[in-house]
Design goal:
signal; BON domain-containing protein; extended; BON_dom
């Protein structure tokens, strides 16, 4: 009885979705217009790499300055630094509110204060 119910539910889902091959032909092939849309809207790895060179450099410079600060704890020096489109996000544990503020100040100075999102968390104090 349970198998019949499962098959009935599966069949109704296929019917509700417009068929098993709603995005292609009966053999499951993708239509040419779908390939064209996907191909022209998706960025290639090379495009992404070229766009990300500036973000990679920004991340490197922020990391370099944070690691160079001898007053920061190992936790602060190991925070995650994510640069995307010139915006810097800081994540991870730091030892104090002072360190939290310090890593943010370093990121602002290095990035030109375009946008800093400080998601670091004080682990102990």
């Amino acid at each position: 009885m349970n198998n019949k119910l499962a098959m009935l539910v599966a069949a109704s889902l296929v019917v509700a979705s417009g068929g098993a091959y709603a995005d292609g032909d009966k053999k499951g092939h993708i239509k040419d217009d779908q390939v064209s849309k996907t191909y022209h809207t998706e960025k290639t790895a090379d495009d992404q790499a070229m766009m990300n060179e500036k973000d990679t450099e920004l991340t490197r410079r922020v990391r370099e300055q944070i690691v160079a600060d001898e007053k920061l704890s190992m936790n602060a020096k190991n925070i995650k630094i994510i640069a995307q489109n010139g915006k810097v996000t800081l994540k991870g544990p730091v030892d104090s509110a002072g360190e939290r503020n310090k890593v943010e100040a370093i990121a602002k100075k290095v990035s030109g204060a375009k946008s800093i999102i400080n998601q670091t968390e004080v682990e102990k104090e």
